[in-house]
From TrEMBL:
Name listed for the protein in its UniProt record: Sodium/calcium exchanger membrane protein
Sodium/calcium exchanger membrane region domain location: 36-183, 212-352
Cross-referenced PANTHER family: SODIUM-POTASSIUM/PROTON ANTIPORTER CHAA (PTHR37958), SODIUM-POTASSIUM_PROTON ANTIPORTER CHAA (PTHR37958:SF1)
InterPro entries with a match to the protein in the record: Alkaline_pH_Ca-Antiporter, NaCa_Exmemb, NCX_ion-bd_dom_sf
Keywords: Membrane, Transmembrane, Transmembrane helix
Keyword rRNA-binding among record annotations: no
Organism per entry: Azorhizobium oxalatiphilum
C-alpha cells in the first residue's frame, strides 16, 4: 500500500516543485539539489511502477518495451542536463552508455542469474530471443563505442560528423529492426512461458497509469538540471582522475535501480525470460536511442562529443560481450554464470575509480 501511495505522490511532488523552483528562480544550493535528487529518484521508482501498470494492461512484449523506453527518456534528460551544465563534458555520453552496457550485462544480469539459480538451481530462457538482443547489442556497441576511435578521423583526434551521423542512423535502423522482430514478426521468441497468473490483474486502468507515468517523466526532465549541477559539483570536489566516468556510472546506477529490482524480482520468481527482457532491453534501448539522441543534441547546441572509449574499457566491453554469448549459449543458466558476470562487474567498478 505504501509503495502505491508514493507512486502517486512523487510524480505530483516532482512536477510541483520543478514549477515552483522555476517560478521563484531559487539559487543553487546543496539542500535544494539534494531534495531534487530525492524527488528524481522517487519519481524513477514511480515511473517504473506505472510503466509496470501499463505493461500489465497491454500485451507482451509491448509491456516490457514501455518500461525500457520510459527509462531511456529519463536517462536522456539527465545526461543532456549534465552535458549542458557548466563547461562541455565531451565524454559524458560515451561513459554513460558504456556504464549502462557494463552495469546491465555484468551487474544486473549477474545478480539475476545468481539469485535465480540459488532458488531454482537452473533456469531456462528462449535462446532465439536472447540471441536477438545480444546480436544487436554487440553490433551497435562496437559501432558506437569502438569504431569512432579507430577511424582515421578518430585516431587524429578530429571529429567527422558525416561518419558519426552515418553510424547513428545505422544504430537507429538496427534498433528499429529489432523492435519490429520483437513486437511483430517473432513475438513468441521474446515471450516467457505461459504461467497461471490468476488473481494478479492490475488494480487500476490505463486512464490512471498513463497520465501519472507522463507526469513522472515530465517531473524528472524538469528536475534534471538541478540534479546535474549538484552531482557534478559534488564529484568535482573529490578530485577524481576520471570524473566523467564516475558521473556516468552514478547516473546509470541511480536510473537503473528500479529496473534492477524489477529484473531481480522476476528472476527470483523463476521468470528469467521476463528478467532478461527487462535487463537487456534497457541496455539495447540506451545504446540504440540514447547515443543518437545525445549526438543530435550535441550538434544542435555546438558541444562536440568524444565517442571512442579508452583501452581498458575496450578490453572489458569485448570480454563481457563474448561472455554474454557463452552464458546464454545453451538456453539454460546456473549459479556459475551469474558469479562470473558479478566478478567482472566488481572489476569494472574498480577501474572507474582507479583507471
Amino acid at each position: 500500500m505504501g509503495l502505491t501511495v508514493f507512486a502517486y505522490l512523487f510524480p505530483l511532488a516532482s512536477l510541483g516543485f520543478a514549477i515552483l523552483n522555476s517560478a521563484l528562480a531559487l539559487p543553487f544550493s546543496w539542500r535544494v539539489s539534494a531534495f531534487e535528487t530525492f524527488l528524481l529518484v522517487g519519481s524513477c521508482f514511480a515511473a517504473v511502477h506505472h510503466a509496470e501498470g501499463v505493461s500489465a494492461r497491454i500485451r507482451q512484449p509491448f509491456g516490457t518495451l514501455v518500461l525500457t523506453l520510459s527509462v531511456t527518456v529519463i536517462e536522456v534528460s539527465v545526461l543532456v542536463a549534465m552535458m549542458l551544465n557548466g563547461e562541455n563534458n565531451p565524454t559524458i555520453a560515451r561513459e554513460a552508455v558504456l556504464s549502462t552496457v557494463m552495469f546491465v550485462c555484468t551487474g544486473i544480469v549477474g545478480a539475476c542469474l545468481l539469485l535465480g539459480a540459488l532458488r531454482h538451481y537452473e533456469q531456462d530462457v528462449r535462446q532465439q530471443g536472447v540471441n536477438g538482443y545480444l546480436s544487436v547489442i554487440i553490433a551497435i556497441s562496437v559501432l558506437c563505442l569502438l569504431l569512432p576511435g579507430e577511424t582515421f578521423a578518430g585516431r587524429t583526434g578530429a571529429t567527422n560528423m558525416l561518419q558519426i551521423g552515418f553510424v547513428m542512423v545505422g544504430t537507429v535502423v538496427l534498433y528499429g529492426a529489432f523492435l519490429f522482430m520483437q513486437t511483430v514478426r517473432h513475438r513468441d521468441d521474446f515471450l516467457p512461458e505461459e504461467r497461471d497468473e490468476a488473481g494478479e490483474a492490475p488494480q487500476h486502468s490505463l486512464l490512471v497509469h498513463v497520465p501519472l507515468l507522463l507526469c513522472c517523466l515530465a517531473g524528472i526532465v524538469a528536475l534534471s538540471s538541478g540534479v546535474a549541477a549538484g552531482v557534478e559539483e559534488g564529484l568535482d570536489r573529490l578530485g577524481l582522475r576520471d570524473p566523467d566516468a564516475v558521473v556516468g556510472a552514478a547516473v546509470v546506477a541511480m536510473l537503473l535501480l528500479p529496473e534492477t529490482i524489477t529484473a531481480i524480482r522476476a528472476a527470483r520468481n523463476n521468470e528469467l525470460q521476463r528478467s532478461i527482457n527487462t535487463a537487456l532491453g534497457s541496455a539495447l534501448a540506451t545504446i540504440g536511442l540514447t547515443m543518437p539522441a545525445m549526438v543530435l543534441v550535441s550538434e544542435l547546441v555546438g558541444r562536440p562529443l568524444t565517442l571512442g572509449i579508452d583501452p581498458e574499457d575496450r578490453v572489458q566491453l569485448l570480454l563481457v560481450l563474448v561472455l554474454s554469448i557463452v552464458s546464454f549459449g545453451t538456453g539454460r543458466t546456473n549459479m556459475l554464470n551469474g558469479l562470473v558476470h558479478l566478478v567482472l562487474f566488481a572489476i569494472y567498478v574498480m577501474t572507474i575509480f582507479i583507471p
